[in-house]
Design goal:
582 residues; alpha/beta; Rossmann fold
Length: 582
């Protein structure tokens, strides 16, 4: 689709958001028309006042005073109308922005994980924050100046036609030049502003990546490389921004030149008419004022068009996000999982992240209630992928997964995921108090339940040493806690929920050996009677598992308990001996 067609498509979508605020839009247009009508009435009064100054000593002061009073009233009413118009425009603009941001954030919440995995977080954030802000600025300017500009142009033309058709014809003949100039610049600026918006998103993504991982950056001496990448993106942003600003900045001088031609045409034509007695001096003054008022909106509209190019470019990016395919919704007749005992079956499951790169093929597994299933194997063999499929973060390509003899595609995602308690190697904590993070999965938990869970996870002692205990505020992702402390809090969160089934993906990888032994004991109590899936690299942590699945390149190559797998002398025995060889 060409640039013009894309802009029209985006514009129609934006109009769909405006439709909700038609009352504010109607009042704004009405106030714009009222403002313009009063503004156009003032030059007529000024012309009448000039005509009352006939000659030296022949001045109708009373008549002039009456006219000045009318002008004062008109100016006062114009100010009130403009204030009302601005209030409506603000309510409309920021209402639309709120709706778009809400919709964008809701879409982020239901986007499939493959979208999140394939886009940098900073780029997504840039769309929701920076692009929407840019869109708001352009939209507000559009509402504020576009309405009054168009009504002013139409109003001045109508009044000038009633005064003198010939002079109006001169104005109309020169006007198309302004449109041609604005159209040429608009096409250039849209492409430049779109490139600017995309590059700004790329820059935000890099900043987010570097700031979020500053410890790693400094630890590996990557500062110069990061600076080099930033300078390169910043240079491209500077280049496309300069081009966008250059093309947008020549709009005003170009239209002002056309405006001067209009003013000169009216002045010269009107002067000859006045000499021949065709119009009075007052009417000529009135026409010159109207010529100014007629051309002024072209300057404003050309500026608005420039801003609208930027706004539409930003709107296009945020609408792309909003229109992304969401995850497959729950079926209308999806059931809610209840009374989960822990029966899980994977039957002929095949899955791959990229179609031409096979990962899991023909995977079969039957898990009985209360069994502990450990999944081991080299990096990239598909261990974490199995967890993603169990939680239905991704859907299988072929085959199916059953919980309590029900295909998980037939149940609600919420009920499926609340049936599992999950502790991952990658910890996540939200900005807030320790208390808020622990009770996230069980908001109605009592103080006693929370403390009992913290003690079971061996987190209570370090929490009590914090400045405000459980009310200590932690930064985003627990930045002011150690990795081990963050992991203990994530374990506490799961222990508080007392889920029907457990998923532990390297759940104790960041905890010291002494604490890990205590946590393993706590997990052992928690896993009693619960079906549990344990992903581990350290084989010492899964020796008590009922079933150990040994995976390699997406397939189960060995299956059994610790002793039987060692006795086989296969791949598991090789892994085990490599970890414990003296």
């Amino acid at each position: 689709m060409n640039g013009g067609g894309k802009q029209k498509e985006i514009l129609f979508k934006v109009l769909g958001y405006i439709r909700k605020y038609w009352v504010y839009l109607g009042i704004s247009i009405l106030m714009a028309a009222f403002t313009v009508a009063l503004t156009l009435y003032v030059p007529i009064l000024t012309g009448d006042a000039i005509d009352l100054i006939i000659d030296k000593g022949l001045v109708d002061f009373q008549g002039i005073m009456d006219i000045l009073l009318k002008i004062a009233v008109a100016i006062g009413l114009t100010a009130v109308a403009q204030w009302l118009m601005n209030v409506c425009n603000n309510k409309m603009t920021y209402g639309i922005v709120r709706d778009i941001r809400d919709e964008a954030f809701r879409k982020v919440e239901i986007l499939p994980l493959k979208y999140i995995d394939s886009h940098s977080y900073g780029e997504v954030v840039s769309r929701v924050i920076a692009d929407v802000d840019q869109f708001a600025d352009g939209l507000l300017m559009g509402f504020t100046q576009l309405f009054t500009g168009i009504v002013t142009i139409l109003g001045t033309l109508a009044i000038m036609l009633t005064i003198n058709i010939g002079i109006t014809a001169v104005v109309v003949c020169i006007t198309p030049v302004s449109f041609l100039v604005a159209n040429f610049i608009a096409k250039k600026t849209y492409r430049m502003f779109k490139q600017q918006s995309e590059t700004r998103g790329e820059q935000t993504a890099l900043i987010d990546e570097m700031v979020g991982n500053q410890r790693v950056v400094q630890a590996f001496g990557y500062e110069d490389n990061a600076m080099g990448r930033f300078d390169e993106i910043n240079g491209r942003l500077q280049e496309c921004s300069l081009k966008a600003i250059f093309f947008s900045s020549i709009t005003n001088p170009a239209t002002r030149f056309v405006n001067s031609l209009v003013y000169a045409g009216v002045g010269i034509t009107g002067a000859f008419l006045a000499i021949r007695g065709g119009i009075s001096v007052g009417m000529l003054s009135c026409l010159l004022t109207y010529a100014n008022q007629y051309t002024k909106p072209f300057n404003e509209i050309s500026g608005v068009i420039t801003e609208l190019q930027n706004a539409l470019a930003c709107a296009g990016r945020i609408l792309e996000l909003i229109e992304e395919e969401p995850q497959i919704p729950d079926k209308e007749n999806a059931v809610v999982l209840k009374n989960v005992k822990g029966n899980v079956a994977l039957r002929d499951v095949s899955f791959s992240y990229v179609p031409d790169k096979k990962l899991i093929q023909g995977f079969n597994l039957q898990v009985k209630p209360g069994q502990r299933v450990a999944i081991v194997g080299p990096t990239g063999c598909g261990k974490t992928t199995i967890i993603n499929l169990l939680m239905r973060f991704y859907d299988v390509d072929r085959g199916g997964i059953w919980v309590e003899n029900t295909d998980i595609r037939e149940v609600t995602r919420k009920s499926l995921r609340t049936s599992y308690g999950m502790v991952l190697q990658e910890t996540w904590l939200k900005m807030g108090t320790i208390r808020e993070n622990i009770v996230m999965g069980k908001p109605d938990a009592t103080e006693e339940e929370m403390i009992a869970a913290a003690k079971a996870a061996h987190a209570h002692s370090f929490i009590k040493r914090l400045p405000e205990g459980y009310d200590t505020v932690i930064t985003e992702d627990g930045g002011n806690l150690s990795q081990g402390q963050k992991q203990l809090l994530c374990i506490t969160r799961v222990m508080l929920c007392q889920p029907d089934m457990l998923i532990l993906d390297e759940a104790t990888s960041s905890i010291d050996t002494r604490t890990e032994l205590k946590i393993q004991n706590a997990f052992a109590k928690l896993m009693e009677g619960r079906t549990s899936f344990i992903v581990a690299h350290r084989l010492s942590t899964i020796q008590e598992a009922d079933i150990i699945l040994v995976m390699k390149e997406g397939n189960i190559i060995e299956q059994g308990n610790h002793e039987s797998l060692l006795a086989q002398g296969g791949f598991y025995a090789e892994l085990y001996n490599s970890q414990f060889a003296v």
